[in-house]
Amino acid sequence: MESITYDRFSSASEIAQDEINHTAPKFLPELGRQNRKMYIISGVLALYMLILTMAVGIKLSQVSQEVADVTFSLKTIESSIKEASNPLQFEIPPLNPELIVQGPCEENWVFFKDSCYFQSTIKQSWQSAENNCIRKNAHLVVVNNLDELDFLSSIVKLQVSYWIGLVEKEEGQWSWVDGMDFKATEHYWDEGQPDNWDVIVNGEDCGQLHGRIRVEKRRHWNDADCTLSCPYICHLQFSLG
Ligand SMILES: [Ca+2]
Ligand SMILES: [Ca+2]
């Protein structure tokens, strides 16, 4: 009986052990595979969310830049329409109050050293500009020295060219409108000027204070087609006597 009991007990134990040995290896690998699957799915989802977030961020940045570009274009178009509605009108740039005083000059003229200067608010051909200055008992400005050139450079609008009192009556023969000897004064031609560039149509026989792209202390001269409409600067020497 003892042997039988022992055998039964032994058999039950073996069965239990057998169940442990056989059930566990079957269950654990299955659980591991499911966990790995979950980890992979979670990882893929996290990666997908990261890519989605980055894509949305980049798109928002692009849309923001496009909105800024469109806004800039609209402002440019608006400015062009205003200019086109009256091409002969010209807006004078704001004057620097530290440099500009009216002094003894009339209203809308500015005083520098012993002279008064007038910036036009309209664009005209060189001859019409000179005629308008004469009607004000003045002439288109004759630029005698660097101080005057730098003063004019400081009051005019960037990227705009202004008629001055310089004219080429015969090719190569430049003269000042007030009769001053051109050869006796310093010359401040811009680089590559005078180039008589528009030779086929009218030639370039009238002098300008040349427009610039960048802000620079000193503006130089350009020869241009006299029939072009440009703003201009009149000059009147002020006599204290
Ligand atoms: Ca010329
Ligand atoms: Ca030129």
Automatic annotation (TrEMBL):
The chain crosses the membrane at residues 38-58. GO terms for molecular function: carbohydrate binding. Residues 112-235 form the C-type lectin domain. It comes from the Eukaryota. Keywords: Lectin, Membrane, Transmembrane, Transmembrane helix. InterPro entries: C-type_lectin-like, C-type_lectin-like/link_sf, C-type_lectin/snaclec_domain, CD209-like_CTLD, CTDL_fold. SMART domains: CLECT. It holds the Pfam family Lectin_C. This is C-type lectin domain family 10 member A MMGL. It comes from Triplophysa tibetana.
